[in-house]
Amino acid sequence: MPAGTAKPYLSGREWKRHSHCLIHIRLPLKVLPRNMRAILLALSVASFASATIFQDCGSVGTDVVLNVENCELPPCLLERGSTYNVNIQFTSSQTSDALTIDASANLAGINVPWPGIDTDGCKQLEGGSNPCPYSSGSRVDWTMPVAVLSEYPALSTVVTFKLKNAAGEPEACTVVPVTLV
To answer: Collapsing DSSP states into helix, strand and coil, what is residue 91?
Structure first.
């Protein structure tokens, strides 16, 4: 990068998507039969639409997937006065009897906690009212509605969602740019 040019916040290589959501084809498409080309195209479109692109910020869990309602490509446009479902899926690195939510927005270089969020992530795990503990190697599927209050200012920021195990380690740590409109 030439001197004096600003580095973009997130480069293409820093973005992370669940490993099955990207298809890399090294064969020229003309080599493949016509019906195979159609199947590959359909699969790539379906897998591309299934997750929100994000930057991983130190997850100890594996196969992390982030889904922000109505957002596939950042920055996510979030309308003030609306509520959006945020879904994070991961394979746990260890058995834990807790899942703590740490959600924040970066405002002027300071990570400010997202107000009004219940930090007990076990309450939002799909499949029961409080299904903790979860075991090592299990697939965890967490969903929570997040309110974007109308009192929030219209701005662009970076949002971090961390789901921490009982040891305080982030099983899933995702960073995604958002614009509040």
So the answer is: strand
Q: Report helix, strand or coil for 10.
A: coil
Distance in angstroms (rounded) separating the CA atoms of residues 102 and 161: 6
Q: What is the DSSP string of 112-176?
A: EEPTT---BGGGGBTTSSS---B-TT-EEEEEEEEEE-TTSPSEEEEEEEEEE-TTS-EEEEEEE
For every one of its 181 residues, what pLDDT tens digit does the chain have, with 9 covering 90 and above?
444 433 344 444 344 443 333 333 333 444 445 544 444 343 333 334 458 888 899 999 999 999 999 998 899 999 999 999 999 999 999 999 999 999 999 988 999 998 888 898 888 885 654 578 888 998 989 998 988 999 988 999 999 999 999 999 999 999 999 999 9
Q: CA 40 → CA 18, 31, 59, 91, distances in Å?
A: 18, 13, 30, 27
Alpha-carbon distance of 140 to 101, in angstroms, equals: 14
Residue 47 CB coordination number (10 Å):
15
Alpha carbon distance 157, 86 (integer Å): 17
Radius of gyration of the chain (CA): 18
Residues with Cβ within 8 Å of 24's Cβ and at least 6 positions away in sequence, in order, are: none
